[in-house]
Design a protein that fits this description.
The chain has helices at residues 3-10, 29-65, 70-85, 88-105, 115-140, 144-152, 157-187, 205-216, 222-248. The protein is mainly α. The protein is globular, with a radius of gyration of 23 Å. It starts with a helix and ends in a 20-residue tail after the last helix. The mean pLDDT is 91.
Length: 268
Amino acid sequence: MSCLQTLQDYGLRSLGYGERLLPRSDFTLCDQFVLIGSGMIWNVYFGVLAVLIGFVIANGVALGKNASSTPIRKSAEWFIFLFRGSPLFIQFFFAYFLFLQLKSVSPIFDPFSAAWLGALIVLILNTAAYSAEIFYGALRSIPKGDIEAADAYGLSGWSRFRRIMWPTMMRLAWPSYTNEAIFLFHATTLVFFSGFPAWRQQGDALYYANYFADKTFNPFVPYPILAFYFILLTLCVIGLFGLVNRRLNAHLPQEKKAKMRLRMNLIR
């Protein structure tokens, strides 16, 4: 079988398209690259949606932790403590068994026991808790001079937060938030090794890497391929978040970068 044929048969297998049966023997390097790459679709799905939705929730939780109202502040603090204080792997297990119990109550909860929704909810809440703590720290670190300047211009309430406080909070928090996004994409590999099962062997990249490692008794081929894919994914995340970071800091003076010069060291 040619590599092109393998790509056609298994390129979208993780989504249920193509060959239903996995290869059983004579695994080629192309088979492993294609199937592990197919599983990366799930990792990207979990990571992208969790980052986008978790970002919105994290902003609200950070504001709640900074609120003057005690019930709101305590609720935000306990939410952050709960998800930061327990391992993500355990959260997947507890969530899966909780969704199974809800599934027996009403059929409306059936999708929650599937990884595409149930595991996504866990990832969203987990990254929201970590990101909220980052945003809260940045919110508390906003220079008082910025707030005093906003008051001098007559800005208050929502207008002051939207135009002064929130952009400054994002600028201060963005480097740490970039690391959180990278960790989140790496954490997506835990989904199908927790309570959420892979339906019809349609798992993520680590699921297929583990499959090849078990069949060939050689983990030194599939796992480096998996690492290669995640390095590429990490570079994409760093690049996209770097563009946002430059946009957030566009008003700041940029340091002049010294040009690299090749100097021949002829005499030591």
